[in-house]
Amino acid sequence: MITTAETATTTTESERVPVKRWLGVAAVAVGTFSVVTSEQLPVGLLSSVSEALGVSEGTAGLMVTVPGLVASATAPLLPVAIGRLDRRIVLLGLITLMVAANVMSATAPNFAVLLVSRLLVGIAIGGFWSLAAGIAVRMVPSKFVPQATAIAFGGATAANVLGIPAGTLIGQLTDWRIAFGVLGGLGLLVVTALLLLLPQMPADKPVHLRTLAEQFRNPVVRTGVLVTFLLVSGHFAAFTFVSPIIESHIGIDKNLIGPVLLAYGVAGIVGNFLTGAAGGRNIHATIVAISIVLASVLTLVALIGTTPISGIILLIAWGLAFGGIPVGVQTWILQAAPDSAEAATALNTAMFNLAIALGALFGGIITDSVALTAVLWFGAALSVLASVAVWTTRSAKN
């Protein structure tokens, strides 16, 4: 992977970073925002797509499963496949692919074509996500790397807070096809910005698969990847079907799903910062606590989240809990593998996307064969297993 030492800027540590460089980092952040929104947009449009194309809600959940599976393979393999190819060209190609995929989604005549478009989205997601951090840090001197990384990945958080609720709201006010079309238009703006703001960025050395495999020798990295799978797949087994849960289980009008998801997203940002602060003191205990809280909230949604008031309160608590998972687990992994940060991150990113895909798949099967609320119990059970895995790893180290 690209290291922070391989910076594309000629600026020295003591010099001010040109504004154009920061604008380039911001363009990468908007790109991250667009690909993450593309991946998760169907969550808020599930019921609408299901009705329009004549498929069950469980089957419609494949719109999340397919890109997640593809992205989980693309994230670690694309850096290997592209070799020394200029990263600027690759990013431009991936965002262009995302634009084409969203246009295809917006015009899909049936569910089969829609799934093909979602496969293309998965390629764009996995590839862009695996390269975004390396691109951002090459835009600035090393002392500004933390800020550049935070900006680049801030797009993912913004996608959960603004992208998905906004897309849901657009779909509700107009049509679900319009939501995909608007996202394709945003992608065109990103292509233009990247073309104007990013310098040429050839890779000095290729990435090898053996570096990824070596990460499994680290017990914390092994457990961290497992915990990512358990927490994220459990969450998305339930969250993929949050729209029908909000409507039929909690009893909130369909037109209010967008604002409710916005409240959930804002809570997720708060959870992200709270976890960052708590993790600085004791990241191990923080992850255990998050896992237990998430399990408790999912259980309570199933048991008592049957009124608008209780349901909204619990959804906000759900957002608080899950909002801290990505930063919490990633911090734990990076502390355990400081000399292999990029390889460990690529591995965790691949597992994150695989978990999204399989969580949505399992959730669809459970929804169609058992009951809608059964996905909440499933997510809670996996969260409990995650807390045990983290705690056991700590005990083994001691």
Outline the secondary-structure elements:
Elements: H1 19-40, H2 42-53, H3 57-60, H4 62-81, H5 87-106, H6 111-138, H7 145-173, H8 176-197, H9 209-214, H10 219-239, H11 242-250, H12 257-304, H13 308-323, H14 325-336, H15 341-369, H16 374-397
Helix pairs in contact: 1-6, 1-7, 1-8, 2-7, 4-6, 4-15, 5-6, 5-8, 6-7, 7-8, 7-12, 10-14, 10-15, 10-16, 12-13, 12-14, 12-16
Specify the biggest β-sheet: none
How much helix, percentage-wise, in residues? over 70%
**CATH architecture classification of the largest domain:** Up-down Bundle
Oligomer: single chain
In the residues, how many domains can be counted?
2
Give the overall shape.
globular
CATH class designation of the largest domain? Mainly Alpha
CATH superfamily of the largest domain: MFS general substrate transporter like domains
Class by alpha and beta content: mainly alpha
**N→C terminal distance:** 32 Å
Number of helices: 16
Order of helices and strands: HHHHHHHHHHHHHHHH
The third-level CATH topology of the largest domain is Growth Hormone, Chain: A
Radius of gyration: 20 Å
